[in-house]
Design goal:
252 residues, 3 domains, single chain, LD_TPept_cat_dom, 13 strands, 4-stranded mixed beta sheet, alpha+beta, globular, L,D-transpeptidase catalytic domain-like, cell shape, lipoprotein, signal
Length: 252
């Protein structure tokens, strides 16, 4: 049975790599009799691969801290706050890393994972002081996080952002979205800005064109977002939507 299980895992992994759906996992014949197995779905195969990858995860420098933050944030799976890597801990860290575009997403609790988890855990959504009715986009410059509130309640949970670097500080204040295009060309920097939503001057929300966790690079005043967040914000935003920017990015 051990040999059969091992080959099933291999077949499941091959299904994911090949992108096939509804493929059959094939087991070797035993005692001259063919063995049939149930179809391996993409979800089941992905689970097998995730567990296999998690089993070999290394323990990072910030293991216990990251475990604590992920448990506080919730939604990433079962985490034991003991500073010891386990398959469950690693799977949760990988899920977190993939959600926030942290590379490589291999479950190691390194400095970037620690920094992102700490910032998200420290974010206080009530500090935005949103409008009681309608949509308010919130940008916390201090923690470099952003979220959306609707009718005074959290509508889209906090995610990471990267605002203006030194010399290009994103201004604090209350603004309104005054231009929206799915793809805006930036003349000064000669780059396309996907899911553009301008709220003051030449500054606005848009999908980042570089690695968002390269903090030293920063933006030129815009609010950089990961692709999935930029798409989400664009689907929610309208002309006149409120944007509240507060705090100050460290070092600016």
């Amino acid at each position: 049975m051990k040999r059969v299980t091992a080959r099933l895992v291999t077949a499941a992994m091959a299904t994911v790599v090949g992108g096939g759906l509804g493929a059959f996992a094939l087991a070797p014949a035993g005692a001259g009799a063919a063995v049939r197995t149930a179809p391996v779905t993409a979800t089941a195969a992905t689970t097998v691969v995730t567990k296999a990858a998690a089993a070999s995860c290394a323990t990072g420098k910030y293991q216990k801290q990251v475990e604590g933050y992920l448990k506080q944030l919730g939604g990433y799976g079962t985490v034991t706050v003991d500073g010891k890597q386990s398959a469950a801990d690693c799977a949760a860290i990988i899920k977190f890393q993939k959600r926030f575009g942290i590379q490589p997403a291999k479950g190691l609790a390194g400095p970037t994972t620690y920094d992102v988890a700490k910032r998200l855990a420290a974010t206080k959504t009530a500090a935005c002081k949103p409008k009681k009715k309608g949509i308010t986009f919130c940008v916390d410059l201090t923690h470099q996080t952003t979220w959306v509130m609707k009718n005074g309640k959290v509508y889209v949970k906090p995610t990471v952002t990267r605002t203006g670097m030194k010399g290009y500080r994103t201004p604090a204040g209350t603004f309104s979205i005054n231009k929206r295009t799915k793809k805006e060309w930036s003349d000064p920097y000669e780059v396309w800005l996907p899911y553009w939503q301008r709220f003051i001057g030449g500054r606005g929300f848009h999908q980042t064109t570089t690695y968002i966790h390269d903090k030293w690079r920063g933006s030129h005043g815009c609010v950089n977002l990961l692709e999935q967040d930029a798409k989400k914000y664009y689907s929610i935003g309208k002309y006149g939507s409120t944007v509240k920017v507060f705090g100050r990015r460290p070092g600016t």
